Amino acid sequence: MENQLFQGEYVSSDRLLYTPSEFAKSNLMYLQEIGRLTAQKPHTSKRQNLSSFLFIYVRSGSGYIDYEGKEYAVSAGDCVFINCQNLYSHRTSNDLWSIEWIHFNGESILPIYLKYRERGGQAVFHTDEAGSPRGIWEELNTIARSSDYIRDIRINEYLSRLLTFLMSFSWNPEAAPESGSKSRINALKEYLDTHYQEKITLDGLSEIFLTGKYTLSRSFKEQTGTSIINYLLVVRITHAKQMLRFTDMTVEEIGYNCGITPLYYFSRMFKQIEGVSPLEYRMNWK
After folding, report:
1. Are residues 20 and 30 in contact, defined by beta-carbon separation less than 8 angstroms?
2. Looking at residue 177, what is its pLDDT?
3. CA distance 42 to 62
4. 196-242 tens-digit pLDDT
5. Quick one: pLDDT band at residue 175, thresholds 50, 70, 90?
6. Residues in a beta bridge with 64
7. Which of 26, 229, 234, 286 has its CA 20 to 30 A from that of 79?
8. How do residues 52-96 score in pLDDT, each as one tens digit?
9. Helix pair angle (179-194, 202-209), 10° resolution
10. Can you tell me the distance from the alpha carbon of 155 to that of 234, in angstroms, rounded to the nearest whole number?
11. Average pLDDT over residues 23-44
12. CB neighbourhood size of 69 (10 A)
């Protein structure tokens, strides 16, 4: 971690650059940076291709956020939630702003962000003082600067609260993505959920849904956060676990009924997802 207090021509800021443990990066939502600043002069910051998600709360003043080709005017009480892989910039107006921000990441963040956008969640939204997220920021800032030996676990807890806060502002159906693509992906998910026992290929799905396989794959990943192949594998393994626990079928029979053959491949895929072999899983749940 590095604590930086920066007094410059353009901003006065206090930020913490946080280095999470390897355990946190592999298993939790984790903090990358937290800070606050007060602008001294109008200025612009621009970023792209950062493996990070950014939350900003405008405490006072006003400014502008440019994201995905759109400019948003922001002022006191406004919140920002964006994916930093995409080009973005933020700049204060002459009414110099004071902002608080959190950079964070984790394996589960992208699917949550995609769900936020699917529900019509906006890059910028407003909250009144009663619904202010400042309490979450203060708690996260305090624990990140502490020596608590389970600090990364507590950070994960506070980031979960932040995401709960963000998702509470996500339901804006009039602003949701185009319904055609969304409906197609929902139909595809339903098809995979019900036809998992069959042989399924991208070429076959392309013919069924009258969409090029590359376009279909890309749209599915954008809207669900995972690939078609991985989604189908998880569906199959989920059904396999049910059969292992609640039937007397052999492992080979279960693999066949879940659409994963031959036996050695089923066992390998099952262990890849669950961390144990099918037989070990069955024994653990007896």
Report:
1. yes
2. 59
3. 11
4. 999 999 999 988 887 889 989 988 988 888 899 999 999 999 999 99
5. low
6. 73, 91
7. 26
8. 999 999 999 999 999 988 999 999 999 999 999 888 999 999 999
9. 130
10. 28
11. 93
12. 7
**Euclidean distance between CA atoms 14 and 192, whole angstroms:** 49
d(CA 117, CA 172): 9
For residue 177, the 8-state DSSP code is P
Cα-to-chain-centroid distance, residue 250: 38
Spatial separation of the C-alpha atoms in residues 176 and 265, rounded to whole Å: 40
Please check whether residue 137 is in contact with residue 104, taking contact to mean a CB–CB distance below 8 angstroms. Answer: no
- Exposure letters 157-179 (e unless 16+ CB within 10 A, then b): ebbbebbebbeebbeeeeeebee
Mean pLDDT of the chain: 90
Place of tokens 């204060």: 92
Cα dist from 31 to 16, 18, 205, 259, whole Å: 10, 6, 39, 40
Nearest to 123 by CA among 53, 219, 62: 53
Q: Tally helices (H) and strands (E) across the chain.
A: 11, 11
CA distances from 137 to 48, 55, 76 (A): 24, 10, 16
The two structure tokens encoding residue 102? 């959190």
DSSP 178: P
